[in-house]
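Hi,

Apologies if this is the wrong queue. I'm a grad student, and the batch job for ARG and Rhodanese-Phosphatase-superfamily-associated domain-containing protein from Actinomadura rudentiformis produced an output file that my downstream script rejects. I'm not sure whether the problem is my script or the file. Here is the sequence I used:
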Amino acid sequence: MPGTPESLEPLVPGPVDLAGYRLGVPQQAGALTMIPITGPAYPGIVPPRSGLKLTQVAGYGRVELRNGSPDGVAIVPLHIGYIQDAAQNHALCRSAFLAPGAAVMFEDACCVQESQGGYLTGRDQWFFVLPVELRARALELRGVHGYSKLWNDIGELNARYGLPRRGHLEQVLSRKRAVLTQFQSRLEPQPGQLGALFFIGGRFAGLELAPDPVYFAEVWMALVCFAYGAAAWHAEPPPAGAGGPGGSGAVPYEAADLASLRAELARDRAARAAEIAGWVAAVPAGDARLREEERYLGLRLSTVTGAELAGQIVTDGDRPVYASLFARAIA
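Support response: The file is valid. Your script probably expects a header line. Output copied below for reference.
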């Protein structure tokens, strides 16, 4: 699309080499806009759905993940959480490395279901990524023990969504799942896509970068439906005829023939591309700082902290391998 920004250089903080990464044609579904990212794949990283398994909930706030691959390192997606049948649901506050065949007990997980009893049953298990409105707070709570530490924030989120003010994230993730999963089909990953920029109502919401397209495909639903889809659902414009943005204010084309219609469409597309290019240029990455948290061989996991941006990034030298960066505040 003419006018669409092609480079990620201004968007990722730190001394990283983003040569070869490109932004693709934007897609929009209601308030949510996704811009695909393509680039060079980084081999040897275990994808999260087929490679990672939640093997144990040893008590509230203590969950164990296992890397089932015998020869690949796993990068745990930042803020991954699990919904389980008849068990307490948890989410992680941080990313981590899991060596081949290794299991890690996360002592600083947060329970996201205030009063449901039970532990892991081993069936009907699926994962999500925390809604973007909770992610900055969850990142701040990494290393802090206390299974109820996110309940107040979850309760506030529920109240903002018009739901009962309780520390039950399943009020959004499970009970609204049919609505949220529509984003999975309304926005479609492109061949070779290994990342995305997400905007909600024209404002930057997050940047997600995976090691390769397989990894990205496996985390896609958790990102588009839950990490960003929940906020987009809450910010959905009113339906056509209801007035306001996305309502009945659209002006029909006045073209009298096919050539004129094509010209009007081209003008609209160019204007839309220029608008989105402005969104990308306004992403607030400049003041962010990096703090190294963990190493595995040549891989480094760092936390990104800025006035408006936060998240974590994995690098190999100056090459980005994985990134999950998000806006601190979503209007």
